[in-house]
Amino acid sequence: MRKSFLLVAGLVLAGCGEPSSPPNIVLVVADDLGWGELGSYGQTKIRTPNLDRLAAEGMRFTDFYSGSPVCAPSRCVLLTGLHTGNAYIRRNDETAERGDVWNDPALEGNRPIPPETLTLAEVLKEEGYATGAVGKWGLGWPGSAGDPNFQGFDLFYGYNCQRMAHNYYPTHMWHNQEKELLDNPAFKARSKLPPEADPNDSASYTAYKGNDFAPDFMLSAAERFIRTSADRGTPFFLYYPSPIPHLALQIPDEELKAYEGEWEETPYVGGKGYLPHQKPRAAYAAMISRLDREVGVLMETLEELGLVENTLFIFTSDNGPSWIGGVDRVFFESSGGLRGRKAQLLEGGIRVPMIARWPGRIRPGSTSSFPSAFQDLMPTICEAVEMESGIPVGLDGISLLPVLRGKGSSEDFTRSIPLYWEYQNRRALRRGDWKIYQSGHGQPWHLYNLKDDSSESKDLAKENPELLGRLIAEADATRSPSKLYPLKGVDGPFEFHVEGPSPR
After folding, report:
1. What value does the mean pLDDT of the chain take?
2. CA angle at residue 356 from 250 to 225, to 5 degrees?
3. What is the mean pLDDT of residues 216-236?
């Protein structure tokens, strides 16, 4: 049985009037894109003109967070509005009871979210929206309870399985529950160049390429979905979780040329879980520019169809930047001066870019430092479309529409629910400018004032024991136990549940 709804008053935007029809929603989620990897967030080496334009035409958030420091739980938070203390998926879970998922290519897919899960796609579909998910899923294999078609999406096209998304030249994509074959060899991706291969010879890397670059097909599917919905006169929700720039480093040669020769390169020969590449810096930059171009295509499609004014366009990332597989996050300053990276609950692992554009409703070129996160997107979108049934009850997020309307810094608008994360016995909570962080069971809690110390370099725990205690108590109170992912010392004396290798 689905969760009940709480009726809330519809939004009337001051000075803008009522929209002529329900707004379309385009939600683009990058994969492992760091807080500092866009031009509008200070990046100087990688070119992102379309995303910079999106920021100039909308609002840029400086203190926005992903749902988790890794892929699957972050997506679960985004689609359900529940933080990782209450969400069903709280880590990357490969469901090892199905078999050897890391070596059996027939076992695609990750642990499925349950059938009773209420998703953003379901609530929008009930409002008459066409719903499409194009990109990387990671919340249940085809035919399982977590299949996107069983979780509110009319269309799914892309990678169902996170592991399969480690290769941009796969043998197939999933179109709903059917495989769509691509013209690529069915090679088993090697993680390291063979000893006899010359790492400086481009011919050594031909085994890691194919003919059909998967992002081309996903972008085409997204365009078709927008055009079909527009032709039918149907409001639409496009969820576009791109696999870029998640490893492996793979980009067509013609796109690599944009950065070839710009920097000194040390070939990445593999050996750390991902495919080799001769020019890793150029490849990584080209991948992010490729993502930027895809956003540009979606923007142009909306412009061509006259849909810009009535579309809320949101761009963000599922977690912070990677640190292995040839990624040089120090060189690109990927975390933008923040401490940490993917798989950590430090700021660099969870603070991500977020840009929102909605002409006539969001002031162009505006910026917000209001602390917010993935769990806020579901209530925000529900209120933006003025759902008759209202915002679902029991969510861990709040609607950001007051922020988008320029009221995020006023004293009368504050968070009623703190921001909270847990991942593999690590925990963090943010309340206002204060953040507490624990690196693991039995480890001390740290306290930071992010307004004065966004790099988390000065621990104030010993100076503020009462505040620290209140925030720890709030962290305990805001979560619920999980049998799949119990916290040591909190959920009971049972052993920590581990399935499959650590996320890479």
Report:
1. 91
2. 60
3. 98
DSSP 3-state of 277: strand
The sign of the CA dihedral 62, 63, 68, 70 is positive
Strand partners, 366: 59
Positive or negative: CA dihedral 44, 45, 46, 49 = positive
Judge whether residue 7 has pLDDT over 50.
no
**Edge-first strand listing for the sheet containing 59-61:** 178-181, 172-175, 155-159, 130-136, 236-241, 24-30, 311-317, 354-357, 59-61, 366-368
**What is the Cα–Cα distance from 474 to 193, expressed in whole angstroms?**
50
Residue 416 near residue 398 (C-beta atoms within 8 A): yes
Q: How far apart are CA 269 and CA 329, in angstroms?
A: 17
Structural contact between residues 160 and 137, judged by C-beta atoms closer than 8 angstroms: yes
Are the beta carbons of 65 and 372 closer than 8 angstroms? yes
Amino acid at 288: I
| CA-atom Rg of the chain in angstroms | 22
- Token duo for residue 384: 């933006």
pLDDT value for 190: 65
In which band, very low, low, confident or very high, does the pLDDT at 133 lie, cut at 50, 70 and 90?
very high
Provide the pLDDT for residue 218: 98
Q: What is the CATH code for 424-477? A: 3.30.1120.10
Q: Report the pLDDT value the prediction gives residue 15, as an integer from 0 to 100.
A: 36
Domain boundaries defined on the chain: 24-407, 424-477
Calpha distance 314→352 (Å, rounded): 13
CA dihedral sign of residues 465, 471, 474, 476 = negative
Q: 389, exposed or middle or buried, with CB in 10 Å at 0-12, 13-18, 19+?
A: middle
Q: How far apart are CA 108 and CA 103, in angstroms?
A: 10
Give the whole-angstrom CA distance, residue 94 versus residue 72.
Answer: 10
Q: What are the tens digits of pLDDT across the range 152-161?
A: 999 999 999 9
Which CATH architecture is the domain 24-407 placed in? 3-Layer(aba) Sandwich (3.40)
**Nearest residue to 334 (alpha-carbon basis) of 347, 345, 60, 369:** 347
Per DSSP, what are the bridge partners of residue 427?
Answer: 422, 438
- At 20, the pLDDT band (50, 70, 90 cuts) reads low
How far apart CA 236 and CA 18 sit, in angstroms, is 18
Determine the pLDDT at residue 3. Answer: 37
Average of pLDDT values for 197-209? 94
**pLDDT for 95:** 76
Nearest to 448 by CA among 433, 466, 438: 433
Distance CA 240, CA 165 (A): 14
Alpha carbon distance 137, 163 (integer Å): 11
Contacts of 259 (CB under 8 A, 6+ apart): 281, 282, 283, 285, 286, 289
